[in-house]
């Protein structure tokens, strides 16, 4: 017993000396261990280099640790999603540790300045994690970093700087500007953890101008609804939310699709408990032909990009809207593209307008992951408008940007004879034909119209 006490004292002194040698004075980020009861408050800070702070915060050494890193903020305060994510993680892992990284003072500056500070935050997190592993014996196999927007790149930098590889990093719509063409060392990449999964929910626009990064950066990159635009993130919804909540939520509305990545991560496991979601064919539900989103995402050995056709995320969107008591109608559309010259275009922005017996829903944004000559593409679109019986469909192919030199000398076009549409709520199948036999969809051109076909097609 006496011998064990002497060994313990020697180790304690050695550890104390080594911690004094290690300099933690340049760490600017704060690490708050939050609790399920006070998920919105920073009640207990773990200070790197101070082992007593770990004990005071009742850190659980035997369970997992989630480290949440927020992104750029206009207000300089935590956004409403932070406590929601904290509670969701504790629901999934009740005995875990959920730590929120506070770098608000640097995240509320001019965007390019805040973007540059992700290096500092990443270094701070890496120093914190290394200290936990080296001095406290906490295995990095239990560490899961979750970063939103700029926070995703900070998480990636942290993972690249740790002495041993972190088990998992989840990127929640990693920021696009300043990172689309950046080197892997200053952004999130698949090399930053044993497993890196990424949700892309707002990749609209030209590269490096898109709010969310467009390129795949993880082992698995999931693009719900094509990644370009999310249901409910439109002007009508914005006006409704402002009327209900006031102007204080205006900044949230601007990044509706961007922040949807967080809510999909939070709500997907809960929504998947529902036995049946209206509008999803039962045969697809039985075959389970969709990957999980969020915490229970299926790990893959090789990097893979998944641009969903709507089946996976439509179940979640229906669940989300059901909980918010907002109606949602969706349609599955199939198009066969013709052309004399073999052409393939990826990640293309389009608009579709629906005209029915009751109302119309115009200029619904969506992204087609690929348009290829003599191939059929299927996609899912959403609207909050009950248009009644569908009569006319219009399709328009948008230009990426007026400054884009892509296709400057040769405007691509595809021929379309008909559209096949299935209404999600009624499962009714309809066919819409080109009035001239075949219509040509040109990039940056006018919309093309399709009307209900007569006779058997």
Termini separation: 88 Å
Shape from CA axes? elongated
Order of helices and strands: HEHEHEHHHEHEEEHHHHEHEEEEEEEEEE
**Beta-strand content bin:** 25-35%
**Major sheet attributes:** 8 strands, mixed
Oligomer: single chain
Q: Output mean pLDDT.
A: 80
Q: Please give the order of strands in the largest beta sheet.
A: 1-3-2-4-5-6-7-8
Which class of secondary structure composition applies to the elements?
alpha/beta
> pLDDT below 50 for ≥5 consecutive residues: which ranges?
10-14, 16-20, 272-291, 307-316, 321-326, 401-408
CATH class of the largest domain reads Alpha Beta
Number of domains: 2
**CATH fold-level label of the largest domain:** Rossmann fold
Structural overview:
- This protein is of the alpha/beta class and 457 residues long.
- It folds into 2 domains: 246 residues, 3-Layer(aba) Sandwich (Rossmann fold), CATH 3.40.50; 117 residues, PLAT/LH2 domain (Lipoxygenase-1, Sandwich).
- Helix content is 29%, strand content 26%.
- The chain is built from 12 helices and 18 strands.
- The strands form 3 sheets. An 8-stranded mixed beta sheet has the order 1-3-2-4-5-6-7-8, sandwiched between helices. It has an 8-stranded antiparallel beta sheet with strand order 11-10-13-18-16-15-9-12, with no helix packed on it.
- A hairpin with a 5-residue loop joins β15 and β16.
- α3 packs parallel to α10, α6 packs across α7 and α10 packs across α12.
- It is elongated, with a radius of gyration of 25 Å.
- About 12% of the residues have low confidence.
């Amino acid at each position: 017993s006496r011998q064990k006490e002497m060994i313990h004292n020697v180790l304690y002194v050695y550890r104390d000396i080594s911690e004094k040698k290690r300099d933690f004075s340049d760490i600017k980020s704060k690490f708050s261990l939050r609790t399920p009861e006070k998920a919105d408050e920073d009640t207990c800070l773990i200070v790197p280099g101070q082992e007593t702070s770990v004990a005071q915060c009742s850190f659980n050494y035997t369970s997992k640790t989630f480290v949440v890193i927020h992104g750029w903020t206009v207000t300089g305060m935590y956004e409403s999603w932070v406590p929601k994510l904290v509670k969701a993680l504790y629901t999934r892992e009740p005995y875990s540790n959920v730590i929120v990284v506070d770098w608000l003072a640097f995240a509320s500056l001019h965007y390019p300045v805040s973007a540059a500070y992700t290096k500092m935050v990443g270094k701070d997190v890496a120093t914190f994690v290394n200290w936990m592993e080296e001095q406290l014996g906490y295995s990095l196999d239990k560490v899961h970093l979750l970063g939103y927007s700029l926070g995703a790149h900070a998480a990636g930098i942290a993972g690249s700087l740790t002495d041993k590889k972190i088990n998992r990093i989840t990127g929640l719509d990693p920021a696009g500007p300043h990172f689309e063409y950046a080197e892997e060392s200053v952004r999130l990449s698949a090399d930053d953890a044993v497993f890196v999964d990424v949700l892309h929910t707002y990749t609209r626009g030209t590269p490096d101008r898109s709010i969310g990064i467009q390129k795949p950066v993880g082992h698995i990159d999931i693009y719900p609804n094509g990644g370009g635009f999310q249901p409910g993130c439109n002007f009508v919804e914005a006006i409704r939310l402002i009327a209900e909540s006031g102007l204080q939520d205006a900044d949230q509305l601007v990044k509706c699709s961007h922040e949807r990545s967080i809510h999909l991560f939070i709500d997907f496991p809960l929504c998947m408990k529902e036995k049946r979601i209206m509008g999803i064919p039962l045969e697809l539900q039985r075959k389970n032909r969709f990957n999980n989103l969020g915490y229970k995402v299926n790990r893959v050995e090789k990097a893979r990009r998944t641009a969903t056709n709507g089946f996976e995320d439509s179940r979640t969107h229906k669940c989300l809207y059901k909980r918010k008591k907002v109606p949602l109608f969706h349609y599955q559309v199939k198009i066969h593209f013709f052309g004399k010259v073999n052409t393939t275009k990826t990640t293309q922005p389009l608009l579709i307008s629906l005209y029915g017996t009751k109302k119309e829903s115009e200029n619904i944004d969506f992204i087609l992951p690929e348009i290829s000559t003599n191939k059929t593409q299927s996609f899912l679109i959403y609207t909050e408008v009950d248009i009644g019986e569908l009569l006319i469909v219009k399709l328009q192919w948008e230009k990426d940007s007026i400054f884009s030199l892509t296709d400057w000398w040769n405007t691509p076009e595809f021929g379309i004879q008909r559209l096949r549409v299935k209404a999600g709520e009624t499962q009714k199948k309809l066919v819409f034909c080109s009035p001239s036999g075949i219509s040509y969809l040109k990039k940056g051109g006018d919309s093309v119209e399709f009307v209900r076909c007569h006779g058997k097609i």
